Amino acid sequence: MDTNLLNNYVLKAIDAYPYDLEETVENLNYALSYESHNAYALYLMGRLQAEQFGDYEKAKSYFAEALANKMDFIKVYPMYILVLIWNHDFDEAQKLIDFAHNVKAVGKGELLVLQAQLFECQEAYKKALKTFKKAKLFVYNNSFITFVDSEINRVKDKIKPKKKKTSKKKKTKKEKSKKKKK
Question: Which of 83, 90, 96, 173 is deepest in the core (most CB within 10 A)?
């Protein structure tokens, strides 16, 4: 198989995604017909299934196959973990997060953000906050830090007890009773 031709199809699919889905699918199908175990084509097919079609089970199988063929393909880990969280496969997501921490060059800050999101989905808000704060220590990008800060604020809002608003009628009754006492 001509590697340049395979790479051309994969590159065309990368370039077309997500703006031209028809071209993306066509090029991915060509790439996978040449080499059915191409990790990047499998990864992109998994993203397509998850993000565009919402078929998380198919996406999971594509991501798993991509990792089976290339364990050090670091782009797969965050997306695969996110799909597991979306699909409420929390135990699988935790196992993959734990494994991904041992893979060289995987962004530790990004993994910690995913861990915090997993805690949040499990309604462990204090653990989520602690993990988001830890994630800030492992990033070198101001926009990512801003993103993490916004996530922290969002989780804090979930924790805050909601204050009861008194209606105007109740306030007026209270004011009337105060006036009568005077």
Answer: 83
